[in-house]
Design goal:
The complex is a heterodimer of chains A (about 270) and B (about 300). Chain A has a domain of about 180 residues: P-loop containing nucleotide triphosphate hydrolases (Rossmann fold, 3-Layer(aba) Sandwich), CATH 3.40.50.300. In chain A, the strands form two sheets. In chain A, strands 7-8-9-4-10-11 form a six-stranded mixed beta sheet, sandwiched between helices. In chain A, strands 1, 2, 3, 5 and 6 form a five-stranded antiparallel beta sheet that branches. The N and C termini of chain A lie far apart (about 45 Å). With about 270 residues, chain A is α/β, with parallel strands linked by helices. With about 300 residues, chain B is mainly α. Chain B has a domain of about 200 residues: MetI-like fold (Orthogonal Bundle), CATH 1.10.3720.10. In chain B, about 70% of the residues lie in helices and about 0% in strands. Chain B is built from twelve helices and no strands. In chain B, helix 7 packs antiparallel against helix 8. Chain B is globular, with a radius of gyration of 26 Å. Classes of the chains: A alpha/beta (about 270), B mainly alpha (about 300). The interface between A and B is medium-sized, with 30 and 21 residues.
């Protein structure tokens, strides 16, 4: 198996990421202009911007999910703490275990029951002992605020859950393997307001232990939960849209006194 | 108002509507009625040929007219040479065994090849090579089956020096692999990409995500493809004529010539003895039931999964 065994205990250290000169490509097309970004430990960094500005693409570069798309690749430096995750010899699968990701559409693996939805990642990490699996699955579900709702139906298919519950199941699956960083790609845009509220609450709890990066369409959401905000914009050069990072800073400052006029236009609803 | 000047009136439009609907009904009937008649006729005529001997006996030579098959003595009051009086005494057990053995062997060959090829086509990025393979599959699944027979004859029967069940199984494999590969590909493409990404985001390597997450999600479709390929293989005549040849005795030896139901149908329907013609209808009936049964099975399984 290509994946090394997981450390059995949560690492107490807080993790950060450093991005320097990152350039994501789709084939020959540059998707986002070279950008620098610092993801600070135990903070929520929000990436906001209009559709097509490349914020999801950048997010996917942070755990090497970008290259899963055919012909997609990235240049530049992305570091998890001190490790260059694009260095030769680095196993992308291992990167994704250290930097987990939750997607827009909740994914309950439908061929597996609720328990197995969580356990599958743990087994991949080399945990085979049933008692230990039970403990870790329960802990992940508790941490995702889902345990009380599913503890009596762990053998049911994940498809039996509501959308919001499925999203928390996806989060539980991600935190079960105790990553260093968690990336969220518009985790609430397929959910109703109540489920959204529950996920936001959960994000604020997770923030005490994890470093989080979240892509969101919803500016209020970014304002409510994030510590820092990065604003992306899309511009056309020769009719080809290219995204760019125009401003990054503490969320309060971005939303009250943005430096870039385009940020102000965007957050006041004049563009996008 | 000026818009209406060139338009048909309501009555005209409804007349056109009725005419066209009539056309579709007539066309559908032309397609359906013969189909229903064929099925009904085969079931009716073939069904009457079924008895215990049909399923438990193999070939027996026809008994000359006017001779009692049990005693071997002439029967009074019967004219010699009356073909219609010849007794059918044999059955098609050897054909049933042959068809099952050859087709199941072919399925064992073609399932792994077809499914792996389907995974290759669906899960890996499109290259000219992929397109080429897909094109080959489409051509091969549309190829006249006698061509497959000729290939099997040249590649396997000639070097081996004899007709054999295994040669037939390999010929059928040529027919079944493209079907299985293409259905597997189509069904894998229906599995949402998000599922693959969720597995990969967990840190699953691609082989793990494909084998344990994507493939199980597509399992019903793959089973459907395999069953349909089986039904197609069981009904093929031409490739088997040139590879397994046919056999009058019950044989379980895949390295020797074997019988198969479609070959028996082909041989018996040409026979001058009405009794053997009966057997041909009987084998046609069995084949029809096999294909109908498999199709029903496919419908039931897919319907159950959809729920």
């Amino acid at each position: 198996m290509a994946v090394a065994p997981q450390p059995r205990l949560a690492t107490p250290t807080a993790h950060s990421m450093t991005v320097r000169g990152l350039k994501p490509f789709y084939g020959k097309r540059l998707a986002v202009q070279a950008l620098d970004l610092d993801v600070r430990p135990r903070q929520i960094t929000a990436l906001i911007g209009p559709s097509g500005c490349g914020k999801s693409t950048v997010l996917r570069c942070l755990n090497r999910m970008h290259e899963v798309v055919p012909y997609a690749r990235a240049e530049g430096l992305v570091k998890l703490d001190d490790i260059d995750i694009y260095a030769p010899g680095i196993d992308p699968a291992l990167v994704r275990r250290k930097i987990g990701m939750v997607f827009q559409v909740p994914i309950a693996l439908r061929t597996r029951n609720i328990y197995e939805n969580i356990a599958v990642g743990l087994r991949l990490g080399g945990i085979a002992n049933r008692a230990e699996l039970d403990i870790r699955v329960e802990k992940a579900l508790r941490d995702a605020n889902l345990w009380d709702e599913v503890k009596d139906k762990l053998a049911l298919s994940g498809m039996a859950l509501s959308g919001g519950q499925q999203q928390r199941l996806s989060i539980a699956r991600t935190i079960a393997i105790e990553p260093d960083i968690i990336l969220f790609d518009e985790p609430c845009s397929a959910l109703d307001p109540i489920s959204t509220f529950k996920i936001e609450e959960l994000l604020l709890t997770l923030r005490q232990r994890y470093t989080i990066v979240i892509v969101t369409h919803n500016m209020q959401q970014a304002a409510r939960i994030s510590d820092r905000t990065a604003v992306f914009m899309v511009e056309k050069t020769d009719d080809i849209p290219v995204g760019m990072l125009i401003e990054e800073g503490p969320t309060e400052q971005i939303f009250s006194t943005p430096k870039d006029p385009r940020t102000e236009d965007y957050i006041s609803g004049r563009v996008g | 108002m000026s818009l209406e000047t060139n338009m048909l009136t309501y009555q005209q439009r409804s007349r056109v509507d009725k005419t066209l609907r009539g056309c579709t009904i007539v066309a559908t009937s032309i397609a359906i009625v013969p189909l229903v008649l064929i099925i009904a006729y085969v079931l009716f005529v073939g069904g009457s040929a079924l008895n215990r001997d049909f399923f438990t006996q193999t070939y027996r030579p026809p008994v000359p007219a006017g001779i009692d098959p049990l005693t071997g003595l002439p029967i009074d009051g019967m004219e010699e040479g009356d073909l219609s009086q010849v007794q059918a005494r044999g059955g098609v057990l050897h054909g049933i065994v042959g068809t099952l053995m050859v087709t199941i062997t072919a399925l064992l060959f073609s399932l792994p090849i077809g499914i792996l090829a389907g995974i290759f086509l669906a899960e890996y990025p499109d290259t000219p090579f992929n397109t080429f393979i897909r094109f080959c599959c489409d051509v091969l699944s549309g190829a006249p089956s006698i061509v497959i027979g000729v290939v099997g004859f040249t590649l396997i029967v000639k070097p081996m020096g004899s007709y054999s069940g295994i040669a037939g199984a390999i010929a059928l494999t040529f027919l079944m692999v493209p079907t299985i590969a293409r259905t597997t590909e189509e069904i894998l493409k229906l599995v949402p990409n998000a599922v693959r990404e969720a597995a990969m985001a967990m840190g699953a390597p691609m082989w793990y995500s494909t084998l344990t997450v994507v493939l199980p999600a597509a399992l019903t479709g793959i089973v459907t493809g395999a069953l349909l390929a089986f039904a197609r293989g069981a009904g093929e005549t031409a490739p088997l004529l040139l590879t397994i040849q046919g056999n009058s005795n019950l044989s379980f030896d895949l390295l020797a010539p074997m019988a198969a139901l479609p070959i028996l149908t082909y041989k018996y329907i040409e026979s001058p003895f009405p009794a053997e013609n009966q057997l041909a209808w009987g084998t046609a009936f069995v084949l029809m039931i096999l294909v109908l049964g498999i199709n029903l099975l496919v419908r039931v399984t897919t319907a159950r999964i959809k729920r």
